[in-house]
Amino acid sequence: MAPVQGVRRPPGLLLPSRALPGLQLAAAGPTLSSIWPEMLEFLFRPLRSVLGVAERELETPIVEAEREIIAAVEAIQRATESIEHHVEVIEGLATAVGPLTDSVNQLTKTLADVVTLLAPMAEAEHEVDRVKRFFGFSRHAKPAEPEAGQLEP
Asked: Which residues lie below 8 Å from residue 9, measured CB to CB, with a gap of 6+?
């Protein structure tokens, strides 16, 4: 059996000689393949422990940041819903502006017709006042007579 390149034999590990080809390696003691995982475990156990602690320490700020991001996303969703509602209201107002404008224009025309119809009556009232002044009618109404139980000032 030729030795494997790059692998050193640990002390105490007995390899079979060429003279005894039927000798089992396991009967001679622990093999390199059975010792190697134990040696690696001895080296990696503290490393795994340190990495586990580091992972937990790093996980805490990430979880907090994740919660803050979720809260921000929920706030953005609420703001979006509010904006959508405002847009719906504004669209409703925009559709109502056209009919409202038409109603105001119709009201303006109607009031212009009323003013045209009432203009001769206003002129007639003005003439009646001029005639009253010409004949000496006073503009002031007579004072009301006091009632029976009231004192005069």
From this structure: 3, 15, 32
Instruction: Answer whether 9's CB lies under 8 Å from 31's CB.
Output: no
Task: For the chain, give the secondary structure using H, E and C.
Answer: CCCCCCCCCCCCCCCCCCCCCCCCHHHHCCCHHHHHHHHHHHHHHHHHHHHHHHHHHHHHHHHHHHHHHHHHHHHHHHHHHHHHHHHHHHHHHHHHHHHHHHHHHHHHHHHHHHHHHHHHHHHHHHHHHHHHHHHCCCCCCCCCCCCCCCCCC
Task: Give phi and psi for 119, each to the nearest 5.
Answer: -60, -45
Q: Calculate the CA dihedral of residues 77, 80, 85, 87 and round it to 10 degrees.
A: -170
Residue that wins the pLDDT comparison between 68 and 59: 68
91 phi and psi angles, rounded to 5 deg: -65, -40
Q: Say if CB 11 and CB 28 are below 8 A apart.
A: no
- Residue-wise pLDDT tens digits, 94-135: 999 999 999 999 999 999 999 998 888 888 888 888 888 777
What residue segments make up the domains of the chain, in order of their start? 30-135
